[in-house]
Amino acid sequence: MKNSRTQFFRNIPDVSGKLSMQITPQSIQESALFVFGVSKIELESRSRKRNAAECRHVIAGLLDKYTTLRHVQILKYSGNRERSTISHSIDVFKDLCESDKVFAKKVINVEQRLEGVCA
Fold first, then answer.
1. Average pLDDT of the chain, as a whole number
2. Residue 40 is part of a domain; what is its CATH number?
């Protein structure tokens, strides 16, 4: 039987092929909250403020990118929204990464913070 904890994150190999870090859902959430300056209470609220909304998009997008969680499981970390909202949030994340330079820089900051936390 597989360790149930391993199904929630992917091991990210470094250039030499060794496992350099393990990104967990909690580390993604904490890094995004820090970079966007959003509290966990704001994340879970129905707030439509730009920072809170973008933070939710980043958490959902990075959880989809770096973990094997299904959309229903991502709900827990991105503010307990509906399943269809998570699908939309991931699409918005991808679109904003391509079209909005400021948003893309924030995503890079979150990913760099993840590298520091998980290294």
1. 82
2. 1.10.1750.10
